[in-house]
Amino acid sequence: xxxIVDAEQRRRELAAAVWRVIRRxxxxxxxxxxxxxxxxxxxxxxxxxxxxxxxxxxxxxxxxTERARARIEAVVGDGPLLPxxxxxxxxxxxxxxxxxxxxxxxxxxxxxxALVDPDLAALRDRAAADLHGLCSAVVVALTExxxxxxxxxxxxxxxxxxxxxxGLALHALTRxxxxxxxxxxxxxxxxxxxxxxxxxIVPPSERGNGR
Amino acid sequence: xxxIVDAEQRRRELAAAVWRVIRRxxxxxxxxxxxxxxxxxxxxxxxxxxxxxxxxxxxxxxxxTERARARIEAVVGDGPLLPxxxxxxxxxxxxxxxxxxxxxxxxxxxxxxALVDPDLAALRDRAAADLHGLCSAVVVALTExxxxxxxxxxxxxxxxxxxxxxGLALHALTRxxxxxxxxxxxxxxxxxxxxxxxxxIVPPSERGNGR
DNA sequence: CGGAAAGTAGCACGACTGTGCTATCAACAG
DNA sequence: CTGTTGATAGCACAGTCGTGCTACTTTCCG
Lengths: 211, 211
Prior knowledge:
The structure is a homodimer.
Chain A (H helix, E strand, L loop, with lengths): L6 H19 L6 H7 L4 H7 L3 H24 L9 H6 L6 H17 L3 H28 L8 H21 L6 H15 L16
Helix pairs in contact in A: 1-2, 1-4, 2-3, 4-6, 4-7, 6-7, 7-8, 8-9
Chain A binds a DNA duplex through helix 3.
């Protein structure tokens, strides 16, 4: 057989097959055989790239965080976190289109498994720490940009923003009919408006400044 | 063998064994044999009460919602939703002690499975609709109690409160060290303060009129 | 050309899976 | 007493599971 030009690429292809199986049959259905079949290869080939099933699932989970991180960095770039970019950045963690929805489904399945799998829990904790840090940065960026100094409890507001973010992600994922993409965006935007010093609770006369 | 006095009680005992297995080994480990062993009974006895494994998991999930609902009703009672009870009511959905933590773990595991199991999805959707309704009622109760009328987008604020609630639940469950019980409570309380018309973010000139 | 290495294929094993099924036991009705 | 029902026990079947392992093909290096 032809040499694989890029080993990492091959591993990503197989992990993509894991994603498809998890989305179709859940993490329970992600057996070695099912993944090999989905990837149109053999058990032996699969085990050549991943010694155990746990390693396979670990890599599949790692891929979720990597992709989200890449999208976020593509938006924010190297520079500082601009208030004008905040909504776009945080949106990248919500399941608002098919690609991000796929990631969120896999993420939820693996986070649940992480409750009883220390390896997956470690990956989850690292991602959580990253997102929590991002939320802190967002709170700082928004409050610093306010015209007059706001009395903000930054750690608390970061925690609250993080909760809104993951809560929206969970609900947009599990109740897409009740919380479609644009509505999830609107809720997030309203929350960010509050952090900007413009309380989300405003008289009707001032409402209607869509995103 | 002695007749079972209360069939429902027996089913609850078996479902409790399901909970213990799910908490220890995840939903993957909740096989018929494992549950029977945990409940200290036989496969035959288990199958006498639950015809299939799906029925067993369905009942275990139903039990989570039932218990949460019972606790909430115990707090709010028959009367109207008083602003003074709002925090205590919403707290009942957070994993702030061992009992509620157990429910949340089982809930997360089964919600993940619900992504590929229509029966569980139906239970999840019903619970979500209930909680969403509760959040709406909370928003209405708090804004109506405000001294001056606030321009509140009730559906949007309900959605945001629901997101905060489930986000906090998820984080308190998966990152208990980063978000201990009293801190989760504090974040929720800060959010409710905002709904009361006392924004969590206030200009320095208006500060000092405590929560 | 020959050998090493990369990659693929898939069998074998022992363990586990859900469910159908029968057998057994306890308790009550008649 | 007998007969019926509730409840338990556990075997049998036909699979699937993860992984160890060998065999094989293809590619590259010297």
